[in-house]
Specification:
The protein has about 180 residues and is mainly α. It is built from 8 helices and no strands. InterPro entries: TPR-like_helical_dom_sf (IPR011990), TPR_rpt (IPR019734), Ycf3 (IPR050498).
Length: about 180
């Protein structure tokens, strides 16, 4: 059991990895294979998952473990605790959004994804999660735009197939044609 979380004033600022992300985005955009892109993506996840301190890290890790074990209620409790303790740590909201998404509560996921992106505007995983949540809410045009923004940063996202010809988020080329 992690140490008791006290209050938001006790949570330090999350590490600033903006320079590292800029380099990683350049590398992933230049990647020649899906395998190379996956290795770079893993480096991004390592940075996103660095919580502001040991207490926050313990709660994040436990919540992610619970989510992986499909204890979605327990994971949600942990991510609620984490976001209350570290309200400026984007990954807490992103992880809670993922739990909401798995529960098919797309509206709640969207709220947390928007908070994630306010704190970390280039969080490409949150951008693609936002696209999937919008799609789940049948907001296809917004989902398409959200996915295109994510793919501009990381063209190797697994969700890229949704934007391929015939996919549900493929560019709508007939939209402007009068019939």
């Amino acid at each position: 059991m992690p140490a008791q979380l006290v209050s938001a004033q006790d949570c330090p600022q999350a590490p600033d990895h903006s320079a590292s992300f800029e380099l990683l985005f350049q590398q992933i955009q230049a990647a020649e294979t899906e395998w190379a892109a996956r290795l770079i993506s893993n480096q991004m996840w390592e940075l996103w998952a660095q919580a502001p301190n040991e207490q926050a890290q313990a709660v994040l890790d436990r919540g992610m473990s619970r989510r992986s074990g499909y204890d979605l209620t327990g994971a949600l409790e942990d991510f609620d605790r984490l976001t209350a303790y570290c309200p400026l740590y984007a990954e807490g909201y992103n992880q809670r959004a993922f739990v909401h998404f798995l529960r098919q509560d797309f509206a709640a996921a969207l709220v947390d994804l928007n908070l994630t992106l306010e704190l970390s505007p280039q969080h490409v995983a949150a951008m693609s999660g936002r696209a999937l949540s919008l799609l789940g809410l049948s907001r296809t045009d917004e989902a398409r735009a959200a996915l295109q923004a994510a793919l501009a940063l990381n063209p190797w996202l697994p969700e890229r197939g949704l934007a391929a010809p015939g996919g549900p988020l493929a560019p709508n080329v007939n939209k402007d044609i009068d019939l």
